Predict the 3D structure of the following.
Amino acid sequence: MPKYWHEDIETMSREDMKKLQNERLVKQVHHVYEHVPYYRDLMDKKGIKPDDIQSVDDLHKLPFLSKADLRDAYPFGLLAVPLSECVRIQSTSGTTGKRVVAFYTQADIELWEDCCARAIIAAGGDKDDVCQVAYGYGLFTGGAGLHGGSHKVGCLTLPMSSGNTERQIQFMCDLGSTILCCTPSYAAYIGETLHDMGLTPDDIKLKAGIFGAEPWTEEMRRTIEKSLGIKAYDIFGLTEISGPGVSFECEEQSGMHINEDLFLPEIIDPETGEVLPEGTVGELVFTALTKEAFPLLRYRTRDLCVLSRKKCSCGRTLIKMAKPMGRSDDMLIIRGVNVFPSQIETVLIEQGYTPNYLIEVDRKNNTDTLDISVELTPEQFSDKIKDVQNMEKSLAAAIKTMLGINPKVHLVSPKTITRSEGKAVRVIDRRKLHE
Ligand code: AMP
Ligand code: ZN
């Protein structure tokens, strides 16, 4: 079984990788300066010329690009090749406002699919696997990316797209799927449906899952692994930089290797823009080193995480990023306290609840309110009001210990919280509606 997709790249020495990155960066800056007037203007305003960038060490001199720039330049303003050279458009999910579109040449698609192939191999896949792709197909990059990667590896590919969960399980049983690709929230839903259909992990052949496109906790990983009888691997990416496969997890399951031959990462202070030393939490920034059609330099992802060059037991030398804790704009400020939905998810699962929950934030009488609805399983469900009240109290206390603020917990009946087939919506912030 192959251990790597591109062994030479994935295990390259630090010196050779840096050399490769330097060469690619110098070339890419010229490509962008010559073909993207929008970015050329940003460089000119900063007084930076392409020749000022001689290596990765000069990267900090370049201006940032943000989502606002992408919206500004929508749809064609950051395109670096004639439209006739492009073969594909994909779009962001639009979770944080207007969608932006990204363009791909055939070479861009090849490299993106290669990234997904690296991820499938790292999750233990090879050409004998049956790979069920249950990410949404269409403008969203999840379906297209893993589909392409699965073909490259030579897996038998099932292009299921998301939804129709019982049919997903039927096909899984009939066709012997061994790898499942979807969002972690959908994987949890598939696990739950398997159980509801009276089946167990012994009835299916799945061995691995490649789950990403949204933040998920270690506790969620264990829940999914148990319900489907698999090893669950994280995969990260964003449309602006290509799609899933910007980074991927290996057998160590402790952070994702970034395909840094293609995407150069930096961590910056989201307030000041200052580059932070390795090991510090901050905003992830990517420079696409080889992309032809949509070559973003220093793109601010708004994802918060930390990078590490600690040696990995899988033999890959590619730098690793920790699971992102969410986007800087996912962070809720409630009564002055910073709260990430992932912190709440951690407590819920630790306390034996399912990952079916909804966080609602509002402002009443000038005070922020935090309401968390959590679904009970049929086993947990009780019609004794006192029992439920006690459970609510003890869960609220555990959440208070984690966050430092008091939530109102509502335990609700089984199957009353909407399940997600794609990216889950777990937070409703009504304060924004009053603004
Ligand atoms: P999009 O390209 O619009 O589908 O979404 C990209 C965004 O999804 C990223 O910027 C992250 O915020 C989020 N994302 C993707 N993969 C992961 C992951 N594995 N863990 C956490 N967040 C993720
Ligand atoms: Zn590794």
Observations:
- The chain has two domains: 1-126+133-153+235-329, 332-434.
- The mean pLDDT is 96.
- The two ends are 56 Å apart (CA to CA).
